[in-house]
Amino acid sequence: MTTPVRGSQKARDTLDYLREKISSSAWAVGDLIPREPELMELIGVGKSTVREAVRSLAAFGMLETVPGVGTFVRSRTPVSTLLTEFLGDHDLEEVLVYRRSLEIEAAQHAAVHRSETQLEALRAAALRDEHAERDEVITCEQSTTPGSFHLLVVEASGSKLLLDLYLGVISVLQRARTQGRVILGTTIETMHLDHGAVLRAIEARDVRNAAHSMALHVDRDLGLRTDMLDFSQHTERAASLIGAGYDPGEVPAPVQNSQAAAELEIDARRG
């Protein structure tokens, strides 16, 4: 005779099932999870148990239910949700600096750890962006869309923690974008060139160029409206990178063995 499973245990088992699917990326960020009847059959529980588990994960920011559409994965772990709330109390300029650091680190790790499958996905994303309209690629939301270039770079880093931190930062910038406080600080053509430079570095497993190409890109990618109205101006770091030959739109290949490049390499290692 088997011992019946108590309701509370069913709820815990259901929660664990959903959380494992999300944290393992079996259900990726942005994916629509199975509908309620499918979950009931998969897990072997009733409707109220499924709904309780979904509500719990929604409270952590991992799931979001859209009426009439379904339930989407919004975060792989609660980390990004908590980080979003934490960063929301900080100066937006500091959040942009933090985002830059994460993306530079991701590019370096991607150059080392990326798989051939991930490289093919990056190539496809870069090619897609080249044929996209401006309003399809300038929003922060695009940075967390499955298959987008920036998200693929972070995923190719192989670091789940880095991915969680990145999603948390982008959530803050998404909010700022809708408020008009963050804008694109470069042209669509320059953005495509920058993506191409990052892609080539990752493809060649060139850690230094991956870091510098991404550093230049994020320095002139998103910025505060107040200090990015004149798109002809660059930040001090971007100007240094351009001077060292890391601008794909001006110099066909990075300048090698220059004093400026050496200084930038040391700077990148320091984070």
Automatic annotation (TrEMBL):
InterPro entries given in the database record: GntR_C, TF_FadR/GntR_C, Tscrpt_reg_HTH_GntR, WH-like_DNA-bd_sf, WH_DNA-bd_sf
Pfam families: FCD (PF07729), GntR (PF00392)
All copies of domain HTH gntR-type, residue ranges: 8-76
PROSITE patterns referenced in this protein's UniProt entry, alphabetically: HTH_GNTR
Keywords (A to Z) from UniProt: DNA-binding, Transcription, Transcription regulation
Protein name, UniProt field: FadR family transcriptional regulator
Organism: Leucobacter manosquensis
